[in-house]
Amino acid sequence: MVPFRTLSIIIPVYNEARTIHQILDVLRELELVNNIGKEIILVDDCSSDDSATVIEAYAARYPALGLRLLRHRVNQGKGAALHTGIREATGEYVIIQDADLEYDPEEYNLLIRPILRGMANVVFGSRFMGGRPHRILFFWHSIGNGLLTFLSNMVTDLNLTDMETCYKLFRRDLIQGLQLEEKRFGFEPEVTAKIARVPNVRIYEVGISYYGRTYAEGKKIGWRDGFRAIYCILKYGLLAR
């Protein structure tokens, strides 16, 4: 059992052998406010490359980091990997971290402060508020993100600026108390709709940086995932009422 006030960092992994060491290097050096501890859980979703081997070698090289590697025997999708990691988390808080460096782990401290101050029990990191760096990439992606956030807000009655953000930090008992179903990129609208219905939930947003990737650099989400997100917004936010 990890000590009180530990942040469980859930990292879904699929074919990230070439770059996974980069995020692990950052996490290894990361210091959290108030001496909060780190529990790093990587879930390999049946990668076809050497991701698991690279992670095991890294864990052997830095045993004090206490990396936990969980493996799926068949590929199930990013959402399924997150389900596995969330279920196994033992820290007081849980955050989602992609295996690349589109998001900066140094900003965990920004997200966790509203919780430590007793103001929030869920914090979203918004790429679209505040004055932090934001890589300029795809126009239609930004329009799509805005539309999905708008639709999500309509059915949840929240006023988020970035529902699709990766950085969502939860008190562990809240996220583990949800019955999550979506196996792929529908995780974001589903978890948003379901967390919005938790009694007495207090959701905050803070501005974060975004160092996005192109498809040539490994970005995986596509237009089909956008249509699935709309379906999930309706299914979990509107029809579930």
What attributes does this structure have?
241 residues, alpha/beta, Spore Coat Polysaccharide Biosynthesis Protein SpsA, Chain A, 7-stranded mixed beta sheet, 7 strands, 37% helix, 16% strand
Compact summary:
This protein is α/β, with parallel strands linked by helices and 241 residues long. It has helices at residues 20-29, 51-61, 78-88, 108-116, 139-156, 172-176, 187-196, 223-238, and strands spanning 6-13, 37-44, 68-71, 93-96, 122-126, 168-171, 203-207. The longest helix has 18 residues, at 139-156.
Please, could you describe this protein's structure?
The chain has 241 residues and is an alpha/beta fold. The protein has one domain: Alpha-Beta Complex (Spore Coat Polysaccharide Biosynthesis Protein SpsA, Chain A), CATH 3.90.550.10. 37% of the residues lie in helices and 16% in strands. This is Glycosyltransferase family 2 protein.
Strand order of the largest sheet: 3-2-1-4-6-5-7
Low-confidence stretches: none
| Spatial shape | globular
The sequence of SSEs as H and E is: EHEHEHEHEHEHHEH
Provide the β-strand percentage band.
15-25%
Counted up, domains total: 1
Mean pLDDT: 90
What is the top-level CATH class?
Alpha Beta
What helical percentage do the residues reach?
A: 25-40%
Individual helix count: 8
CATH level 3 topology: Spore Coat Polysaccharide Biosynthesis Protein SpsA, Chain A
Which structural class best describes the helix and strand composition? Answer: alpha/beta
- The CATH architecture category equals Alpha-Beta Complex
Instruction: Characterize the main sheet.
Output: 7 strands, mixed
**In total, how many beta strands?**
7
Fourth-tier CATH superfamily name: Spore Coat Polysaccharide Biosynthesis Protein SpsA, Chain A
Radius of gyration: 17 Å
Question: Distance between the terminal alpha carbons, to the nearest Å?
Answer: 37 Å
